[in-house]
Every structure is written in structure tokens, then in C-alpha cells.
User: Fold this.
Amino acid sequence: MSAKDMLLALCVVVAWGVNFVVIKLGLQGMPPFLLAGLRFSLVAFPAIFFVSRPAIPLRWLVVYGMTISFGQFAFLFLAIKLGMPAGLASLVLQAQAFFTLLLGALLLAEKLRWNHIAGVLIATLGMFMLATAGMEGQSAAGITLTTMMLTLAAALSWGLGNITNKIILRNCKVPVMSLVVWSALVPVLPFFACSWLFEGEEAIVFSLTHISLQTVLALIYLAFIATIVGYAIWGNLLSRYETWRIAPLSLLVPVIGILSAALVLGERLSAQQMLGAAVIIFGLLVNVFGGLVSQRLAMRTHP
Assistant:
């Protein structure tokens, strides 16, 4: 990979890591469903007038939009609004990798390898450590069982979106930006409907008439930098390089998320939470690189 492309990839990773801090800041001035609805409105408009609709059945576009966009961010925004620390949210959300593996085995008959199972078990131990630390109230950065489950539900929705994406790409080649832009149109109405039902007309009107510069900047960041620019660059890199060169860089996202949350929001982790976070990261590393390590060892043993 060229130095320029490596720099672009790292810029995307940083943008996605900081994304969780931006969500936290945006939610300070606007309820979660309304913020998410506006975010995806900005992703879809005016881009749909310049990006061709993906040549896939409408039902798959709807399923993809309702899982990876509506489900993921409805649960994630609500979890962060209810107190889930931004840094830990960026880490727990990476459980999507394990949900994707398990769903792939269950729904697509994909084979699970030893490193996948080991990674899931190790990361589950880390999740348990985070959850029990939060329930014991060991620090101001503690999390509750509710926010933990909401974040895991967001990860599950992301995993379902990944499986849908696999099914879509099995049948036809779809440009990344086409799928991103048009699937963003799907959750807009459901988000606004949820905002009307659960957040109320008064909260909507107040948030829009008293919108702050911080909220506006957060929306611009979430829609354009984290989504449109981020996925455009990432998709371009994946189209030109092997997946194994690009995908592992996403492991840096929770690291950036935790560091940026500490610097910007002053989030601090207890000793048990730090250990739990380290265990989860180790589980992710085993999941991604365990197979490669075993192959190298096998090659050395049987040259």
C-alpha cells in the first residue's frame, strides 16, 4: 500500500473513532431519534440526485437500510443518550464482527474457524467485565446493563446489515456509494416517526428552533465526514487492495474512540473497565489474525 493510501485509511479510522464523541456532543442538544433522522436526511439529500440507484431489488435495499442504518443507530444513539460512555460504545460496537460471523454460520452456512470461536469467547469475557464494572458503580464512567444491551443490539443490527450486504453482493456488483446513499433514505421516515411518537412534538419543535452551532456541526460531521467521505475513501481502498490489508485497520477505531473520549469528554475508565477493554481488543485480534498465525506456524512445521 502506498504512503498516500495508508494516510487516507488512517484518516478514515480517526474520523470513525472520533465519530462517537461527536454523537455524544450532538445528543447534548437534540434527542436521539431526531438527530439520527436529520443525519440520514443529510446523507440522502441531495446525494440521491447525483448517485444512481443501486440495481438491486427494493426489498433488499429496505432490509439493508433498516438494519445497518435504522437498527444500528437507533440503539446506539439511545444508548449514548442514556449514558453509555462514547469511548466504550466505540469498543462494544465492534461486537458486530462476532455477530456477523455467527449469523454467517447460521444463515449462510459459512464455516467458523478456531480463531473465530476463541475470539468470540475472549471478547464475551471482556463484555462481562465491562458490564459488571458498570453495575458495581466502580467509576463515573460506569455503564448500566440497559446501555450495554442497547449497544450490543446496535452491534447485532450492524451484523445483520453485513449479512444483507453479502447477500446483495452475491447477486450483483453494487458501487459502495450507491448503496450508502440510497439505503440512507430508508430509515429517515422511521426515525422521524419514532421521534414524533417517543420524543414528542414539543421536544422536536424546541430542538429545531433552538438548534445550537454544536449540534449543526455534529450533524455535518456525522453525515458528510463520517458517512459520505469516510465510506467513499474506504470503499475505494477496498476496491484497489486486498481486504486483509484494509479491514484490520478498523481495529484502531475503538482505540481512537476511547482516546478521543478521554481527551474531549474527560471520560475515565476504572481498572476493571480498562482490563475488560483490553480483553475485548485481544479477542478482536485473535478473531482477525489467529488464522494467519496458525497458517504461518503450519508452514514452518511442514515446509
Q: What stands out?
A: The chain has one domain: 3-301.
